[in-house]
Specification:
The protein has 1 helix and 5 strands. By secondary structure, the chain is an alpha+beta fold.
């Protein structure tokens, strides 16, 4: 289990994300919040639980690092 960051854009009901997967909900929410400021039409963000393996860790300075498995 992992958490994925997702954002919603404009009036589109679909959630969009990327390939980042985090061990904690908090990391995924922070990543989604950061993603919200890089995309121009984001109206909401969230962390969604998924079955993918954890692939990244979010450092305290906000930098995302890939976990080599």
């Amino acid at each position: 289990m992992s958490w994925k960051p997702e954002v919603k854009t404009g009036s589109d009901p679909k959630w969009y994300g990327n390939a980042l997967r985090f061990a904690t909900r908090e990391e995924a929410e922070q990543s989604a919040y950061s993603l919200m400021y890089r995309w121009t039409t984001v109206v909401d963000y969230r962390a969604a639980e998924c079955d993918d393996p954890v692939s990244h860790v979010l450092w305290s300075n906000g930098e995302t690092k890939r976990i080599d498995q």
